[in-house]
Structures are given as C-alpha cells and as structure tokens.
UniProtKB/TrEMBL annotation:
<dbReference type="InterPro" id="IPR023404">
    <property type="entry name" value="rSAM_horseshoe"/>
</dbReference>
<dbReference type="GO" id="GO:0003824">
    <property type="term" value="F:catalytic activity"/>
</dbReference>
<keyword id="KW-0949">S-adenosyl-L-methionine</keyword>
<dbReference type="InterPro" id="IPR007197">
    <property type="entry name" value="rSAM"/>
</dbReference>
<dbReference type="GO" id="GO:0046872">
    <property type="term" value="F:metal ion binding"/>
</dbReference>
<dbReference type="GO" id="GO:0005829">
    <property type="term" value="C:cytosol"/>
</dbReference>
<dbReference type="InterPro" id="IPR051198">
    <property type="entry name" value="BchE-like"/>
</dbReference>
<dbReference type="Pfam" id="PF04055">
    <property type="entry name" value="Radical_SAM"/>
</dbReference>
<dbReference type="InterPro" id="IPR006638">
    <property type="entry name" value="Elp3/MiaA/NifB-like_rSAM"/>
</dbReference>
<keyword id="KW-0411">Iron-sulfur</keyword>
<protein>
    <submittedName>
        <fullName>Radical SAM superfamily enzyme YgiQ (UPF0313 family)</fullName>
    </submittedName>
</protein>
<dbReference type="InterPro" id="IPR058240">
    <property type="entry name" value="rSAM_sf"/>
</dbReference>
<dbReference type="GO" id="GO:0051539">
    <property type="term" value="F:4 iron, 4 sulfur cluster binding"/>
</dbReference>
<keyword id="KW-0489">Methyltransferase</keyword>
<keyword id="KW-0479">Metal-binding</keyword>
<keyword id="KW-0408">Iron</keyword>
<keyword id="KW-0808">Transferase</keyword>
Length: 467
C-alpha cells in the first residue's frame, strides 16, 4: 500500500511576517508517530510543506493530513485533490477535533483527539474494507507504542530534528487553550513510562533535545524519574514549564542537573483580573520575578510568552510588558494577539457574547484581531503587538537585557541566542536554502552549554569590551 502523510504549511508561513527559520525548527512528529503503526511492506512518503515543495502528482492509496487552524483551507484543498484521484483521505488534528462537521466534508474518515489508539483500529478496518467515518480516541495511553518512524524525517531540513514528546496534554485548564477540547472524553494529561521515554532519548543521535510537551514538569513524579534517568547522558535540552512548577519544590533544579538550558514560560499577563478571567490559576498570586531569578540562578534561559488583548488590557500594556522583559533579562519573548480557538471556552464565551467578527481561519494566527475588543481598538491592539516585537528585539534592549546577568558566560549566551534568533534573517535564509541548517546544531549546543558563575569583574570586563 502506498501511504502519504502531509503537514500542509500554515497560512502565516506565506505572510509578510514569514520567517523561514521559525518554520524549519521541528519535524512533523505526530505524523511520524502514526507512520510507526503502518506495515513494513507499505511504501511511505512523509512531506512537510514548510520545508519542501509538495508533490501532488503521485498516486497514493491512503493520504493522512494533519490539520491546524491556519492550514485548514490548504489541508482541505489537498484532501479534495487526492479524493478526486481516488485516494482514501484521513484528516486529524486540533482543528478537525474542534470542527468535525467542517472537516468531514473533505475526508473519507476523520480522527477526533489523539490517534495513538484509534489509528490502529482504523488500519484494521481499512484492510477489512470496513472503515468508519469517524474515529474517536477512547483509551488514553502511551504504553507499548512502536518507535517513531524517524527514518522518514528529513533531518537535514530542520534545526531541531531531535524533538520528542513524552507526555500528552496538560494538567491545567486555561480558557484560551485548545487542550480540553482536543482531549475531551478521556484523560487530558498522561505520560509515557519513564523507561520508554529514556529509550526514545537513547535512540536520538547528537546531544541536543527539544521536548515539545505542553508542560514537561506537569507530573512531578514522572519528571523527577525522567531527569534522574537522564543524568550522565550528556544531553542539553529545551522544554516548557509553568510558573507554578518552577517555584514549587526542587524539580527545576533536577531538570537543570539533567541538562535543561532553556525553558518556555507562559507568563501571559500581569493582570490578576485577566488571569482569573482566563482561568489561568497556576499564575495567580505567583511572583514572576522570583521564578525568573530562580531560572537565571540555574543558568536557564527564558522564552517568555505574553498575550495582548485580554479584556483588562489598556494602551500601556505593550510598553509595560516589553520593559518588564528587558529589565528581567528574558532571553526571547513571544507575543500573541489573543486568539479564540474553536472548541475552547474562550471561543464559546465570545460566540455567546456576539464578539466574533470573522471565521476566516487564516486570520487565527495570533497576529490578527478576530473579535470585538474591550479597552483597546483592533488597530491599537495590532499596532501594539507589532511595536512590542520591534522594541524588545532592538539591539539596545538586547544589550540592556544581556548585562542584567551576573555571569559573563550568561551574558554572551543571551547576546548570541537573542541576536541570532532575530537579527540575522538573511543568513538564516541562506543556510536554509543551501540545506546547511542541521550543521548549525553544534553552535546551538554550545550556546546551551552550562553556565558556571564567575566574578562580577568578568562581567564588567565583557561590558567594557562590547560597549
């Protein structure tokens, strides 16, 4: 059987804000996971439109397409194309689960929720010529999964080919997050067996890892055993965690000992009213500065996430947020315009209040305003969002933030990481076009090396030389 797995490009990948490096980071791990259930005799082709041109002239028997909100229209067009050629087409992913009736018009079968259990059921039905129209995840487990088909991934096209996911979902229930809708009807947070996770890590070449888990520290017992098992593996890794998990106990220290060097943190907003309205309980009454200081004391760089456009935001929110990020030496900042994902409680509330102004899914990219705002006009919100990115990543602010660190090495790491990420787009584009992206991994590993704190005099000397 000829099987084709496709990740269509997101709409923003072709926008004026197109940054090739951003969309060349991680391979389509979900599709490679499903491919592991296929037969060794199947002829399999996995294509990611972000890093390669799709070949639509082939004749597969089975086509599997992963659908996100801003690639939905492109995914539907590809699905219609292959169905017209006689292929059997499957659609799955976040957007399909949120809007199954919409997706079903373009598919022979759709998958709702995670597919590790339902996809093998489909394969058995398909071979018996009895496929169902809808497959819904029932049993939620990551035990006894076959190894991910990483041989299908074109490693040279990605900066971070060693991405992995050892948990599913998140223990929290933020109103703007897709998680509760995607995992409806079963467990919404569960983990691999630690031994299975360590075995997957052991199969990956090189030194660098990126855990794509929504919250790697969400199950403290699992995380502690994982980090204990990773000691001595000589890995450096990046992941995501919450304010709450950073401040509680000593789990973040164990993560640092295992090789954690950079963490994505959802600060989102400084407003207690916004946190309550968003049901982001894990941030309420938490001191963001304490979390930052703890991470910096461990030599961990921070990618801070912030959301603009919540109902209690005002015109000054952009300036305050950028200044806080610089003052607290956040390594990188990811800003978002509040986006209402179908299936979330936020979307339902906005729909009830009559505040949704468009259902053009291409605009649901965290850059455009798709709802009636409070406190800010749509123009003010989009302009403030764009201003925040430009302001935070000005060279003066990059230098100012870098020199907040007490370690000479941390200063240099901050400068190289932040500047390299945002200030050298032509160079990144050249590297991508010449297929040399994967050759940059040693540089990334070097930047993520452990920080050893020295004397303040070293910091002053670096500041004298650079400035």
């Amino acid at each position: 059987m000829k099987v084709k797995l496709i990740l269509p490009a997101l709409a923003e990948a072709e926008s004026p804000f197109w940054r090739p490096i951003k969309y060349s980071l991680f391979p389509p791990l979900g599709l490679a996971t499903l491919a592991a259930f296929l037969s060794p005799d199947d002829e399999i082709d996995l294509q990611d439109q972000h890093v390669e041109n799709l070949n639509l002239n082939d004749e597969p028997d089975l086509v599997i397409i992963q659908v996100y909100i801003t690639n939905a229209y492109r995914a539907y067009n590809i699905a219609d194309h292959y169905r017209a050629k006689g292929a059997y087409v499957l659609l799955g992913g976040l957007h399909v689960t949120a809007l199954p009736e919409e997706a079903a018009q373009h598919a022979d079968s759709i998958f709702l929720g995670p597919a590790e259990e339902s996809f093998p059921r489909f394969l058995a039905n398909f071979r018996d010529k009895r496929p169902q129209k809808v497959y819904k995840s029932v049993t939620r487990t990551l035990s006894n999964l076959p190894p991910i088909r990483r041989d299908l991934i074109k490693r040279n096209k990605y900066l971070v080919p060693n991405s992995l996911v050892v948990t599913r979902g998140c223990p929290h229930h933020c109103d703007f997050c897709y998680k509760d809708a995607f995992f409806e009807g079963g467990k919404s947070f569960y983990t691999q067996l630690v031994d299975d996770a360590l075995a997957e890590i052991g199969r990956l070449p090189g030194k660098h890892l990126y855990f794509l888990d929504d919250h790697l520290l969400g199950n403290p017992r699992f995380a502690q055993e994982l980090f204990d098992g990773m000691k001595g593996m000589n890995r450096v890794f990046q992941s995501a965690a919450t304010i709450d998990s950073i401040l509680n106990g000593d789990l973040i220290e164990k993560a640092a000992e295992a090789g954690l060097r950079s963490v994505f943190v959802g600060f989102e907003t400084f407003s207690p009213e916004n946190l309550k309205q968003s049901n982001k309980k894990q941030n309420i009454a938490r001191n963001y500065e304490d979390a930052v200081r703890r991470l910096h004391s461990l030599g961990i760089m921070i990618n801070g996430s912030f959301v603009f456009g919540l109902d209690h935001d005002d015109k000054d929110v952009f300036r305050r947020t950028v200044e806080w990020g610089v003052e607290n030496a956040i390594t990188t900042a990811t800003y978002h315009v509040l986006t209402l994902y179908p299936g979330t409680r936020l979307f339902q509330r906005m729909e009830t209040e009559g505040r949704i102004i468009t259902r053009n899914w291409d605009l649901y990219d965290t850059r455009h305003v798709v709802y009636k705002t409070h406190g800010l006009t749509a123009e003010e919100l989009e302009e403030g969002y764009n201003w925040s990115y430009k302001e935070f990543y000005k060279w003066t602010n990059i230098f100012n933030a870098s020199f907040k660190h007490d370690s000479a090495k941390h200063i240099l790491k901050h400068l190289f990481y932040t500047g390299g990420w945002k200030k050298f787009e032509p160079l990144w584009n050249f590297i991508i076009k010449t297929e040399g992206l994967n050759k940059m991994l040693p540089l990334l590993e070097s930047i993520l090396s452990k920080v050893e704190y020295g004397k303040r005099e070293q910091v002053k000397e670096i500041e004298r030389v650079i400035v």
